[in-house]
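Troubleshooting log. The previous structure file for this entry was overwritten by mistake, so regenerating from the original sequence record. Sequence copied from the archived sheet and checked twice against the printout by T.R.
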Amino acid sequence: MVYIFGYGSLIDADCRQRTFPGEKAYAARLHGYQRYWSGLKGSHDRSAVVISPEAKASVNGVLIPFDETFLAQLDQREAGYDRVLLQAEQVELLSELPKPAAKIYVYVAQEYWHPQSDSPILQSYLDVCLRGCLAISEQYAREFLLSTNYWVSHWLDDRQQPLYPRAENIDALALEQIDSILNDMAHLAELKPNS
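Regenerated output below.
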């Protein structure tokens, strides 16, 4: 079985269904990589999370079963990223897989940079990532925040009019839980989103 390791919005089931319809995901942790907020190549309206090799770091995410015949299509969708074949020892399984992993791939940013005023961290994107983590556990959401670097003041609260195209169907209870976690962990950047 081939798996893709998702470490951002693909953690969220609703968001994942757009790329991997019908596929369940399995909690996992990737060792040897650090997650960062970064402006997106060719996009001046938002930042997203990316990963880069870093020996002593790890990031949580999900393993998504994938039909290898569609890799070329996925590579096209992930332009600006390199598809990397992972070694089994890099991936710590946190839930049981239905079939053993023959191959596990991850997409690694070719370049990354701090979010800027024209490419802020969008609250609507962060909400999607954290909703996915909360489906696993609150601790998983906290781990996502702690294992992500480059929290900056270019953080935009766009919940009322989401700029992230896949921010939908997030219920009030999830948003309340997300806000509670963010308030608890405000020390990450000692700032809050700008309205």
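The longest strand covers residues 47-66. Archived copy saved in two places this time.
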